[in-house]
Design a protein that fits this description.
mismatched DNA binding; elongated; Ribosomal Protein S5, domain 2; 15 strands; alpha+beta; nuclease; binds magnesium ion; eight-stranded mixed beta sheet; binds adenosine-5'-diphosphate; endonuclease activity; DNA repair; 323 residues; Heat Shock Protein 90; five-stranded mixed beta sheet
C-alpha cells in the first residue's frame, strides 16, 4: 500500500508547489476564512499551511491519509456537480508517502486537538494537543525518500516563484479569504479577506498595476464574466499576467487567452497581451473539469460561444475607453 501511494504521489505531487496547492485547496474546502502559507528553501525543506477551517475529527485523522479517503463526495451523482476543490482523496496519502508530515487539527466541538506525525507514510506519533480550531499541516523534506524525484526540483528561487504565483492566484480567486504568504521568515503579502478584487491586486501586485486596470462585467443567460484588464495605453504585459478563474477555480485555458488576444489585436495596436484577471461563471454541466488530475485544464462544451462572449465583453470595454 505504501508503494502504491508512492506511485500515486508521482502523479499528484511533482514539486513543492503541488503540495501547497493540494493543502490550500483542502483549507478552502474546509471553509477557512484565513490561510497562512509559510515556506522555507523553496518549500523543499519546509511547508506550513495553517487554516481556521472546520478541522478534522480525532477519529478521522488517520483515515484522511488513506488513499481514496474523501469526505467530500456523498454519491456518484456528486461527481457531475462538484463544488469542492478536492474529491479524489489522493493528496494527503500521496504527500505523506514522500515527506515528513505533522498534522495539528481541532474541530469546533472537540475539547482538544490531535497531533499526528507521519514519515514516508508510517505513523510516528499521535497525541492529544491543545490548539485552536482549524488545521495546520507541516510538510518537511519533500522527496527525502525519493532521490530521483528530489533531483527534479529546481532552484529554491524558482520553486519559491511557483508558490508565490499560486498563492496570488488563490488570493485573487477567493477574495473573501485572507491569505498570507511567508517566505524564509519574511511576509511577502497579506490580503485582507474582506475586500474587493482590486484591493487584492494592490496587496499582491502593487499600486502601479492596480491603478491601471479597467473593470468590465457582462452576463448572457446563465453565463457571466467579470474582467479586470489593463488599460490599452499601458505597454505590454505578457501571458503570464493573464489569470483566469472559471467558477472560482484557477484554470489555464487557451480559449480565454485567444479571446483576449483577438479582442486586443484589432483595437489596440501596442498591446496584444494585457495584464488581466478574468472571472467566468458557467453552469458546471457546460464544462469538463475532469480531464486532468490537477484540474487546472478545463474544456468548455461550446468553445466558440464562450470565446465570442469573452471577445465581445472585452471589446465593448476597449471601444468605450477609446471614445
Ligand atoms: P480530497 O481533498 O480529495 O478529499 P485529500 O487527500 O486532499 O482528499 O484530503 C482527505 C480528507 O482529509 C479530506 O476529504 C478532508 O476530509 C480531510 N482534510 C484534509 N485537509 C483538511 C483541512 N485543512 N481541514 C479539514 N479537513 C481536511
Ligand atoms: Mg484535497
Amino acid at each position: 500500500k505504501l508503494i502504491a501511494n508512492k506511485i500515486a504521489a508521482g502523479e499528484v505531487v511533482d514539486r513543492p508547489v503541488s503540495v501547497v496547492k493540494e493543502l490550500v485547496e483542502n483549507a478552502i474546502d474546509a471553509n477557512a476564512s484565513k490561510i497562512i502559507v509559510e515556506i522555507k528553501e523553496g518549500g523543499k525543506t519546509y511547508i506550513r499551511i495553517t487554516d481556521d477551517g472546520i478541522g478534522i475529527y480525532e477519529s478521522d485523522v488517520e483515515i484522511a491519509f488513506e488513499r481514496h479517503a474523501t469526505s467530500k463526495i456523498k454519491d456518484a451523482d456528486d461527481l457531475n456537480s462538484i463544488l469542492s476543490l478536492g474529491f479524489r482523496g489522493e493528496a494527503l496519502a500521496s504527500i505523506a508517502s514522500v515527506s515528513q508530515v505533522e498534522l495539528i487539527t481541532k474541530t469546533e466541538d472537540s475539547k482538544t486537538g490531535t497531533y499526528l506525525e507521519i514519515h514516508g507514510g508510517e505513523i510516528i506519533e499521535r497525541k492529544e494537543i491543545g490548539c485552536p480550531k482549524g488545521t495546520t499541516f507541516v510538510i518537511k523534506n519533500l522527496f527525502y525518500n525519493m532521490p530521483a524525484r528530489y533531483q527534479f526540483m529546481k532552484s529554491n528561487a524558482v520553486e519559491t516563484g511557483y508558490i508565490s504565483d499560486l498563492i496570488s492566484k488563490f488570493a485573487l480567486a477567493y477574495s473573501n479569504i485572507s491569505f498570507r504568504f511567508i517566505n524564509n521568515g519574511t511576509i511577502v503579502f497579506t490580503t485582507s479577506g474582506s475586500s474587493s478584487v482590486i484591493n487584492n491586486i494592490v496587496s499582491i501586485y502593487g499600486k502601479e498595476i492596480a491603478k491601471n486596470m479597467m473593470y468590465v462585467s457582462n452576463r448572457v443567460k446563465d453565463i457571466s464574466i467579470e474582467a479586470y484588464i489593463s488599460k490599452p495605453t499601458i505597454a505590454r504585459g505578457n501571458k503570464k499576467q493573464q489569470v483566469f478563474f472559471v467558477n472560482g477555480r484557477y484554470v489555464k485555458n487557451k480559449i480565454i487567452s485567444d479571446a483576449i488576444e483577438e479582442a486586443y489585436k484589432t483595437l489596440v495596436k501596442v498591446n496584444r497581451f494585457p495584464i488581466c484577471f478574468i472571472y467566468l461563471n458557467i453552469p458546471p454541466n457546460r464544462l469538463d473539469v475532469n480531464i486532468h488530475p490537477t484540474k487546472t485544464e478545463i474544456r468548455f462544451d461550446d468553445e466558440l460561444y464562450i470565446k465570442d462572449f469573452v471577445v465581445n465583453t472585452l471589446r465593448s470595454k476597449l471601444l468605450e475607453e477609446n471614445l
